[in-house]
Amino acid sequence: MSTSLIYRSGTVYEVLMRGLYGRHYDGRFQPISALIPAGASVVDVCCGPATLFTKHLQEKSVDYRGLDLNEGFIADLTRAGGRGEVWNVHADDPLPAADYLIMQASLYHFLPDPEAVVGRMLAAARTKVIIAEPIRNLATSDNRVLATIGRRFTNAGDGAQEARFTEPSLDAFFRGFGSRVSYRALIAGGREKLYVLDV
Ligand SMILES: C[S@@+](CC[C@H](N)C(=O)[O-])C[C@H]1O[C@@H](n2cnc3c(N)ncnc32)[C@H](O)[C@@H]1O
C-alpha cells in the first residue's frame, strides 16, 4: 500500500495543511503547547512532521518523543534535533510512558475502533492524555471533489481511511470516558476539538 501524496514529505504535508487551515494553522498547536509545562515528558502519537515539537515544545525544553508510521517524518524530526521512532500504533504493543500522551489529527486513522488506542494512551500517561481531532474536513465535505481528495490523500501507508469525525460523533465518543474528560475546547478556528483526559 503506497503512502499518499499528503504524507510523502514534511514539506508537502505542511503546505497542504496550511492551505486547509489557512490563518488558523498555527492555532492548532498553541493551545496544546500551553497545556504542557516546561520540562515535562511527552509522547506524541502519530506525530507527523512534529511541528508541535519544532515550533513550540522544543523551546520549552520538553522531553519529546514522536511516534509515526512514516519513516520520512521521523527522519525529519531526528534531523531537527528531536527524538522519534517509526512505530505502527495499530499494533497492540504498549505505548512508551510519559507525563503527557498526545495525539493530534490522527484519531480517525483508528476508526471504527478508536477506544483501543485511547486506552493504551491512558495506560502510558502519568499525568494527562491530550487529543485534538478535526471536526470539519475535506473527507466529509458535501463537495464530492473535495471529499475524494480528502479521502485519497490521507492514506498513511496502512490502507485508505475514509471515515472522519464530526463534532457530535467526537463528543459522543469522549462521553464514553465520563469524568475523565477534564477539559474540552474548539481550537484552530473551530476546525479541531481538543479534549484533555485525566489518568
Ligand atoms: C493528519 S497527520 C497528523 C500529524 C500531526 N499529528 C499533526 O497534527 O500535524 C496523521 C499522521 O498519522 C500517521 N499515522 C497514520 N496511521 C498510523 C499508524 N497506524 N501508526 C503510526 N502513525 C500513523 C500518519 O503517518 C500521519 O503522520
TrEMBL record:
Q: One Pfam family for this entry, by name?
A: MetW
Per its UniProt record, what Gene3D superfamilies does this chain match? Vaccinia Virus protein VP39
For this entry, the protein name equals Methionine biosynthesis protein MetW
Organism for this UniProt entry: Nocardia alba
